[in-house]
UniProtKB/TrEMBL annotation, chain A:
<comment type="function">
    <text>The pyruvate dehydrogenase complex catalyzes the overall conversion of pyruvate to acetyl-CoA and CO(2). It contains multiple copies of three enzymatic components: pyruvate dehydrogenase (E1), dihydrolipoamide acetyltransferase (E2) and lipoamide dehydrogenase (E3).</text>
</comment>
<dbReference type="InterPro" id="IPR050642">
    <property type="entry name" value="PDH_E1_Alpha_Subunit"/>
</dbReference>
<dbReference type="InterPro" id="IPR029061">
    <property type="entry name" value="THDP-binding"/>
</dbReference>
<keyword id="KW-0786">Thiamine pyrophosphate</keyword>
<dbReference type="GO" id="GO:0004739">
    <property type="term" value="F:pyruvate dehydrogenase (acetyl-transferring) activity"/>
</dbReference>
<dbReference type="InterPro" id="IPR017597">
    <property type="entry name" value="Pyrv_DH_E1_asu_subgrp-y"/>
</dbReference>
<feature type="domain" description="Dehydrogenase E1 component">
    <location>
        <begin position="66"/>
        <end position="355"/>
    </location>
</feature>
<comment type="subunit">
    <text>Tetramer of 2 alpha and 2 beta subunits.</text>
</comment>
<protein>
    <recommendedName>
        <fullName>Pyruvate dehydrogenase E1 component subunit alpha</fullName>
        <ecNumber>1.2.4.1</ecNumber>
    </recommendedName>
</protein>
From TrEMBL, chain B:
<dbReference type="Pfam" id="PF02780">
    <property type="entry name" value="Transketolase_C"/>
</dbReference>
<dbReference type="InterPro" id="IPR009014">
    <property type="entry name" value="Transketo_C/PFOR_II"/>
</dbReference>
<comment type="function">
    <text>The pyruvate dehydrogenase complex catalyzes the overall conversion of pyruvate to acetyl-CoA and CO(2). It contains multiple copies of three enzymatic components: pyruvate dehydrogenase (E1), dihydrolipoamide acetyltransferase (E2) and lipoamide dehydrogenase (E3).</text>
</comment>
<dbReference type="GO" id="GO:0004739">
    <property type="term" value="F:pyruvate dehydrogenase (acetyl-transferring) activity"/>
</dbReference>
<dbReference type="InterPro" id="IPR029061">
    <property type="entry name" value="THDP-binding"/>
</dbReference>
<keyword id="KW-0786">Thiamine pyrophosphate</keyword>
<feature type="domain" description="Transketolase-like pyrimidine-binding">
    <location>
        <begin position="44"/>
        <end position="219"/>
    </location>
</feature>
<dbReference type="Pfam" id="PF02779">
    <property type="entry name" value="Transket_pyr"/>
</dbReference>
<protein>
    <recommendedName>
        <fullName>pyruvate dehydrogenase (acetyl-transferring)</fullName>
        <ecNumber>1.2.4.1</ecNumber>
    </recommendedName>
</protein>
Length: 394, 371
């Protein structure tokens, strides 16, 4: 289905559903910029055109968002080293373009679910850096009140379904969310994100099969950063072409370091998914940090490779170059940088000053309806009454 | 009283197909006619009661849906969803491929958005494949999301030792699931409580794991009023007594009641309580009984190691020690894979004669005849 036809048919159905930036393509803005992105590799589907239209305001919004995500992840790195953040901390820097492009092509009525590398989804789904930082530090002002931690960020109101610790377990969940969209007749998709490591999980194929059987509106997004923790993709996967691994389900491979390529492809995929059923997307991306903060990230790859990525393919630098070559002054970008740094620094300070969740929160929200019984404590004779209090009022 | 009947189906009575072969259900036309006649007398079989519960709840609430293997066109391997796909369509009675991990996760995802799926495991043992989804996502999501997401789903299926089904199809998964925080475990045992409990489970906003028993589907009995909904956390007092408290659940209830027949003739007066709620335990009913009789026997089908009875025994010892005159006696299955041969299979699980022996041991000789 050609992209313009797909989009206009979708717009006719429910014009507000499409990502605003795509809608802007049809606005008669004076300064439309045409950018040629890397051609898409496709599987069982016709490739969309690789000429993407954009404009300066849109690029500025991308720049600002990606820079915010980058600074936030770097701040998380520093806070982890300073022991304000504990446990597992999986950082997303390098991959910002994937999420920014996805969000530009969908709305908050569409659903997103992802793995444990979920800090940035909180921001792109409308959460604040402060909530994210507070959650990482285990404070009660955090996105999940300090109960979830780095791997369990959720935002029900924004249709962000987490935040899942077990590799690949989110994929059947994503198919279930898409099933619910279809069950209710909603014109929405579920973006189900996973990595190249998770692409070898059996439950992914179970979900692909069911999604294909019932034409569920799910977009399987494989964020291929080429390493499953410490194992390179060529050592873990017989076939590294993750966009073809859906077999009978069409796939498209996208340059995941280019936000415009991602946005264009996801808009295409959404139109396809709503009309036909599931589609697999492979985002060719890269993470600068190791798998998590306990992994230096340099024992299984060379520093040269990491530096080459930073110089040649960094997503933020790419957008910056585009902006500078389209009349934006360096000074304006520096102002944006400064504002973002301040926002992140303030958020970190506010999170540090946050409150520790009280002991009474330990027994909240195990069950929805209070069951009337008491749970035993650590020592004999100790009892706790679990209660249902989603606002954590006491 | 259902006690003496239906402990084992009559020899000629054809059991539902062994799920191990995933064989075709012997469409026994004679039996269906018989069933229809019984329905008019208002005595139905447990599978029909469960089906009624699912049907009524699906009619009442359009967000209730069923998913599982062969639940739709095939009618359910134990007929619990027989014919429902014709009434509600394929989307609401969803035939899944054979991928327990996948469709359990799908059920959880759908439940997170507000749908109320009833996910059927054709045999509870198969749900071991879905353990990650049940434990991490179904059980813990409500808590780890800071109270944001509910998981109002019911996971149901038959478990327990059947009729020579072999080790892998005779498992008792309540042992494994009981430690998962955030889930409720419920075991039905009679026609009446199976319908009322399943309705309550479907209406509950918590994730409920609903244990049926493979040998109880053809038990006959009456159901309550159309809208009877049981309390999921309340145990059932099957027989009031004074000598000893016997705690049991699921099919072992019938084994116990068969033993009670013998015990009453010998002059004993046992109190029998069907736990119903395996997690959390109904401590109010349990402690009331223990304080009355001061002796406890637990009769369960779980293995000796790490079963529901093991947990209950620990709770009673810890909370009611001074109310006990005798250590808690626990009759459980033996820690062996369930053998195929009839006699060996019978030897792995609790028999009614063993319950009689246990009561005699705990209560001493024949008690002074009062009744």
């Amino acid at each position: 289905m050609a992209l313009p036809a797909a989009i206009s048919s979708l717009k006719a159905k429910d014009g507000l559903q499409l990502g605003m930036s795509v809608a802007r393509l049809f606005a008669s803005a004076a300064s439309q910029i045409k950018v040629e992105v890397m051609p898409y590799k496709v599987h069982r589907i016709e490739a969309p055109s690789n000429i993407v239209e954009t404009n300066v305001p849109e690029l500025m919004s991308f720049y600002k968002l990606m820079y915010k995500l980058r600074r936030m992840e770097i701040a998380a790195d520093m806070m982890y080293k300073a022991k304000f953040i504990r446990g597992f901390c999986h950082l997303y820097d390098g991959q910002e373009a994937v999420l920014t492009g996805i969000e530009a092509a969908i709305t908050l009525e569409d659903s997103i679910i992802t793995s444990y590398r979920d800090h940035c989804q909180h921001i792109t789904r409308g959460g604040s850096v402060k909530e994210l930082m507070a959650e990482l530090m285990g404070k009660s002002e955090g996105a999940t009140r300090g109960l979830g931690g780095s791997m369990h960020i959720y935002n029900r109101k924004a249709n962000f379904y987490g935040g899942n610790g077990i590799v690949g377990a989110q994929i059947p969940l994503g198919a279930g969310i898409a099933l619910a969209h279809k069950y209710r007749g909603e014109p929405n998709v579920c973006i189900t994100m996973y990595g190249d490591g998770a692409a070898n999980q059996g439950q992914k194929y179970e979900a692909l099969n069911m999604a294909g059987l019932w034409n569920l509106p799910v977009i399987f997004v494989c964020e291929n950063n080429h390493y499953g923790m410490g194992t390179a993709e060529w050592r873990a996967a017989k076939s590294p072409n993750f966009y073809t691994r859906g077999d009978y389900i069409p796939g498209i491979k996208v340059d995941g370091m280019d936000v415009l390529a991602v946005k264009h492809a996801v808009a295409f995929a959404k139109a396809y998914a709503l009309a036909n059923g599931p589609i697999v997307m492979e985002m060719d991306t890269y993470r600068y940090h190791g798998h998590s903060m306990s992994d230096p990230g340099s024992t299984y790859r060379t520093r040269d490779e990491i530096n080459a990525m930073r110089t040649e393919r960094d997503p933020i630098e790419r957008v910056k170059k585009l902006l500078l070559s389209n009349g934006v002054e360096a000074g304006e970008l520096k102002r944006v940088d400064k504002d973002v740094k301040k926002e992140v620094d303030d958020a970190v300070e506010a999170a540090k000053a946050g409150t520790i969740p009280p002991d009474s929160w330990l027994w909240k929200n195990m069950y929805v309806a209070p069951l009337g019984g008491e749970m035993r404590g650590v020592l004999p004779g100790q009892y706790h009454a679990p209660d249902f209090d989603p606002e954590y009022t006491s | 009283m259902l006690a003496s009947r239906n402990v084992r189906p009559a020899a000629g009575h054809r059991m539902a197909a062994a799920p191990g072969q995933r064989a075709l259900l012997a469409g026994h036309p004679g039996r269906r006619v018989m069933v229809a006649a019984k329905a008019q007398k208002k005595e139905i079989m447990m599978w029909e009661a469960l089906r009624e519960a699912i049907d009524e709840e699906m009619e009442r609430d359009p967000t209730v849906c069923v998913m599982g293997e062969d639940v739709g066109h095939y009618g359910g391997s134990y007929k619990c969803t027989f014919g429902l796909y014709k009434k509600y369509g394929d989307m609401r009675v969803l035939d899944t491929p054979i991928c327990e991990n996948g469709f359990m996760g799908m059920g959880v995802g759908a439940a997170m958005t507000g749908l109320r799926p009833i996910v059927e495991g054709m045999n509870m043992g198969f749900l071991l494949l879905a353990f990650n989804q049940i434990s991490n996502n179904c059980g813990m999501l409500h808590y780890t999301s800071g109270g944001q997401f509910k998981v109002p789903m019911v996971i149901r299926g038959p478990g327990g030792v059947g009729r020579q089904l072999g080790a892998e199809h005779s498992q008792r998964l309540e042992s494994y699931f009981q430690s998962i925080p955030g889930v409720q475990l419920v075991a039905c045992s009679t026609v009446r409580n199976s319908k009322a409990l399943l309705k309550a489970a479907i209406r509950s906003d918590n994730p409920i794991i609903f244990f049926e028993h493979v040998l109880l589907y053809n038990v006959k009995g009456e159901v309550g009023d159309k809208d009877e909904v049981a309390c999921l956390e309340r145990a059932e007092v099957v027989r009031e007594g004074t000598d000893v408290s016997i705690f049991t659940y699921s099919r072992m209830r019938y084994v116990v009641m068969q033993a009670v027949n013998d015990l009453v003739k010998k002059g004993y007066n046992p109190e029998v309580i069907d736990l119903i709620s395996l997690k959390p335990f109904d401590m109010e009913t349990i402690s009331k009984s223990v304080r009355k009789t001061r002796k406890v026997i637990i009769v369960e089908e779980c293995m000796k190691t790490g079963g529901i009875g093991a947990s209950l025994s620990a709770v009673i010892n810890e909370s009611l020690f001074n109310d006990l005159d005798h250590e808690v006696i626990r009759l459980s299955s033996q820690d062996v894979p369930t053998a195929y041969a009839y006699e060996l299979e019978a030897a792995t699980i609790v028999q009614s004669s063993q319950v009689v022996d246990a009561v005699e041991r705990v209560c001493g000789g024949r008690v002074a005849a009062t009744v």
